[in-house]
Write a structure and sequence with these properties.
By secondary structure, the chain is mainly α.
Length: about 210
């Protein structure tokens, strides 16, 4: 009987305060929906870049040491170590040339509502981050916020924009390094041919002496 009395009492209390409970739930719901619609949302696109190491010495392993002498220093001076590669990538990412390309490619001057391209570039540097970690890998991120009281289309636009900017940066680096690798390969071929001919001439001179 005690449990029945408690249930009856609880029903009585709920009945008397039903309006207050409904009003309280309604206010909280309106507040939650308003906050969800009005609050800014942040979207981030993140990528990790692994810089290429030094040029392989595979070619040297197939040739006599007399004919490859001096090649390692020349090639190494040109290509550098992984740490040098990371620093070069970081310099490219922080370059003004790349900033201008991104601003123009994605019409960020209009997007950021800036008066000049200089202001748009400043905002671009604020939304991008490039860092080298202890493993000499480069972490790259692009982060942007939606507007207050934004429609759903605004979220989709920002989500796609940060992804596209990040992808553009990666593609740009890939194309730049393809160019550098082509130049390096040409330099290596010329250097190897010169050194080969030089050592060949020296060996022939010694044999005929």
């Amino acid at each position: 009987f005690m449990n029945i009395d408690r249930i009856i009492l609880l029903i009585s209390v709920l009945t008397k305060n039903i309006r207050f409970i409904i009003l309280h739930v309604l206010v909280l719901s309106i507040f939650a929906v308003s906050y969800a619609l009005s609050a800014k949302k942040t979207f981030t696109s993140f990528s990790v870049l692994i810089p290429p190491g030094g040029i392989s010495t595979a070619l040297q392993s197939f040739l006599p040491s007399e004919m490859t002498q001096g090649l390692g220093g020349a090639i190494g001076a040109l290509t550098g170590s992984s740490g040098d590669s990371s620093n070069r990538i970081l310099a490219i990412l922080n370059s003004r040339k790349l900033a201008e390309l991104v601003v123009n490619e994605f019409d960020l001057e209009r997007r950021f509502k800036t008066k000049t391209i200089e202001d748009a570039i400043d905002v671009y540097y604020e939304i991008t981050s490039f860092e080298i970690n202890q493993e000499l890998m480069i972490s790259m991120s692009v982060e942007m916020e939606t507007d207050y009281f934004h429609p759903e289309e605004n979220e989709e636009e920002i989500r796609n924009l940060v992804y596209n900017i990040c992808s553009y940066l990666v593609d740009y680096l890939d194309s730049r390094y393809t160019e550098l690798q082509t130049e390096n390969a040409r330099f290596q071929r010329i250097t190897l041919e010169k050194r080969f001919e030089q050592n060949k001439a020296e060996l022939e001179y010694i044999q005929n002496k």
